[in-house]
């Protein structure tokens, strides 16, 4: 009887082991495939340290100081906001450091203006001379989703502020703000999100050019720069 019980126990164990293998095989079949990594850049890939335009001789030369980027945006992951919640994916990422792409896009868009001759992105040589320096602050640059999780339509928002400084004296001569929202973004379409971010940055550059035009139309700064009023350029 003991031998029979041992044989039956061994057979039962083999059946249980075989069943476990079948269950494990089923688990592997149910595993989700890893989505492919998608990497994006803003505008052209080429690094921009200095940009010059032959068609704007006699135009303004601009120096863009190092970008002040909101900390939650200083990440390789492309950001989508849902209310106060920030959503990011490890599989949709910037192909470069975000500040570098943002500054290249802004510099290229500034240069597209007929009034701009050259744009330098910090750092530059100590001998470089500029008509104006611009300090740019980016506070929002993202896709925006509705709180309704079933909604498929979203927006893309670019919000920024800037200061324009006269290099010779360090005097602040203008402040400006930009708030641009593009509707019609389909949630999950990251290629379109990046395109709309680039368009928002181009609009930001356009706002800065308009502000520079106001400065360029006024008389030269007096010797006492403390008496110079700060020009306020409104948000759009």
How does this structure look, described?
- The protein has about 240 residues and is α/β, with parallel strands linked by helices.
- The protein has 2 domains: about 1-30; about 40-235, ABC-type transport auxiliary lipoprotein component (Rossmann fold, 3-Layer(aba) Sandwich), CATH 3.40.50.10610.
- It contains 3 helices and 11 strands; from the N terminus they run αββββββαββββαβ.
- Strands 1, 2, 3, 4, 5, 6, 7, 8, 9, 10 and 11 form an 11-stranded mixed beta sheet that branches.
- Helix 2 crosses helix 3 (about 190-215).
- The chain is elongated, with a radius of gyration of 28 Å.
- The N and C termini lie far apart (about 90 Å).
Q: What is the CATH fold-level name of the largest domain?
A: Rossmann fold
Classify the secondary structure makeup into a structural class: alpha/beta
Q: How many separate domains?
A: 2
Helix amount? 25-40%
Broad CATH class of the largest domain? Alpha Beta
Q: How confident overall, as mean pLDDT?
A: 83
Question: For the CA atoms, what is the radius of gyration?
Answer: 28 Å
The span between the termini is: 91 Å
H/E element string?
HEEEEEEHEEEEHE
Shape-level CATH architecture of the largest domain: 3-Layer(aba) Sandwich
CATH superfamily membership of the largest domain, which one? ABC-type transport auxiliary lipoprotein component
- Work out the strand percent: 25-35%
